[in-house]
Amino acid sequence: MTEFLQQLLNGLSLGAIYALIALGYTMVYGVLRFINFAHSDVFMVGSFVGYYMGKLIPEGTLWGGLTILVGSMMACAILGMTIERLAYRPLRNAPTLNVLITAIGVSLLLEYTGQVFFGAAPRNFPAIFPVTNFHLGGLIISSNQLMVIIVSAILMVVLQLIVFRTKIGTAMRAVSLNPKAAVLMGVNNDVVISFTFGLGSALAAAGGILYALNYPSIDPLMGVMPGLKAFVAAILGGIGNIPGAALGGLILGTVETFVAGSQWSTYKDAIAFAILIIILLFRPAGLLGKFTVEKV
Amino acid sequence: MLKVSDLQVSYGAISALGGISFEIPQGSIVTLIGGNGAGKTTTLRTISGLLRPKSGSVTFLGEDITAVPAHKIVARGLCHVPEGRMIFSNLSVDENLSMGAYLQTDKALIAKNRDYVFSVFPRLKERIKQMAGTLSGGEQQMLAIGRALMGNPKFLMLDEPSLGIAPRLISTIFEKIVEINKSHGITILLVEQNANLALEVSRYAYVLETGRIAMQGESQKLRADPQLKATYLGG
User: Fold this and answer.
1) Residue A126: phi, psi to the nearest 5?
2) A188 touching B, CB under 8 A?
3) Angle at Cα B151 formed by Cα A296 and Cα B11, nearest 5°?
4) Is A217 exposed, middle or buried (CB count within 10 Å of its CB: 0-12, 13-18, 19+)?
5) Eight-class DSSP state of A126
6) Taking Cα atoms as reference points, which of B54, B50, B49, B48 lies closest to residue B17?
7) Is ipTM beyond 0.95?
8) Å from B78 to nearest chain A CA?
9) Distances (CA, A) of B227 to A12, B21, B129
10) In Å, how far is B22's CA from the nearest CA of chain A?
């Protein structure tokens, strides 16, 4: 039982990171109907911004850690908006396939520019937050794990409030449902799309910092696998659906952790993806996704 | 109030509007009628900035708006209720109305407009928390018009408000259109396939045929016109 709870905890903290990344995929898909493959590299840049900020800010303090978290989120929000402005906006009226290929190009650009500037060798991410282990029964909860779960939960609640309670959030949903009609309401779709990229990228950066806290070896290609998993999580939850992305991330992280802790640990990715395939066979639109039927 | 001069629009090599001109005086209801593919919707989309003309110009309140981006045209008080209603189906009725007021900053005015919309379409108030996609066709049309009214328009363009709506509701909606025009002095450009109905509520009419204005005149006179009768009014 203790082992089960321990694994559940480990799984949820990994899943929360997948969820943070998945939200960016799903939000961008919502407004632009394409998969932003460069998103996983924004996650990587998030870690590296944290790494370099860590050189300037004393390690192991709560305020220092939070400063790094917020700083990295802001830097990546700007990066995400810049990518959108330079790479995707010129293609606004181009076929989706062109945008998709461009996204792969941007992804490669970030990865290999990263290798030029950061070097290809892995670096050790500093312990930016104070580290302690809490013992609860037989359970060992590290403060970093707790940090992951608390920070992700807060960010997801904030995101939910932005999307469902603010004007720009309502505009995001409107643009995603019908961009032409949104324009007729006076919405500048470019501003909304840019905001969406900023928001998604900030969440990816937070994911990058939290991931590096628990897996402190970072390199320019570190985003590839978590990015792929998060993409799968977004599909699993129903692409374009925000609570779905969060749910998908948590499920995927938990399943992966349980499999990794069992005798089939070699097949953890295979099993995680097999589950995806099975779920999609029964719910092709994802767990929370639905094919909307509009009355005429 | 609105002046369209020699407007030419084409989709690639296919010409949709071959140079049309018309004028809409303040406070009136003017209708644009014609069959399928005559260019009615294209005309409205070009006026509201969703399409760019090949040549010609659109002047609104004395200013040339031909090259103004669509989202900035709305700010000038020109609202377009598009064909097929285009309501935000996964947003509630309330949120749809809020989107209509997207550019409005005066809270008191927003509240006043909301009350006005509910007074015109009480049905919307009953369904305020409902997802817009679950409304009936007629209710969706009411919502689309209500949403446009939230933008405090001086000039309202309605594209086929009778399309796909129960006959009983069509007359209600047309009564409301006249009411909006009378009580609020909002100028209206009405595009309709249902020519009978359109000529009944409007003061002046243009008849569009394959991208050209084939006929124009006071609606009452056009209703008696034998040629128009034969083509559009079912004998």
Assistant:
1) -70, 155
2) yes
3) 55
4) exposed
5) P
6) B54
7) no
8) 9
9) 74, 22, 48
10) 22
Give the CA-trace dihedral at A176, A178, A183, A186, to 10 degrees: -80
Instruction: Write the CB contacts of A76 (distance below 8 Å, at least 6 apart in sequence).
Output: A42, A45, A46, A49, A201, A202, A204, A205, A208
What is the SS3 assignment for B26-56?
CCCEEEEECCCCCCHHHHHHHHCCCCCCCEE
- Please tell me if residue A191 touches chain B, with a CB cutoff of 8 Å: no
Question: For B138-174, how does the pLDDT look when each residue is reduced to its tens digit (9 = 90+)?
Answer: 999 999 999 999 999 999 999 999 998 998 899 999 9
Instruction: Give the global pTM.
Output: 0.92
What CA–CA distance (Å, rounded) separates B93 from B128? 5
Tokens 């009136």 locate to B28
Substitution target from B102, B127, B150, B165 for chain A, most A beta carbons within 10 A: B102
Residue of chain A minimizing CA distance to B157: A184
Reported as a single tens digit per residue, the pLDDT across B142-151 is: 999 999 999 9
The C-alpha atoms of residue B3 and residue B132 are separated, in whole angstroms, by 34
Out of A167, A174, A187, whose CB is closest to B91? A174
Q: How far is CA B106 from the centre of its chain?
A: 25
Which of A92, A167, A170, A184 is the best residue to mutate to test the B interface, defined by the most B CB atoms within 10 Å of its own CB? A184
CA dihedral A114, A117, A122, A125 (to 10 degrees): -100
Give the tokens for residue B5: 């001069």
Handedness of CA A91, A97, A102, A107 (dihedral sign): positive
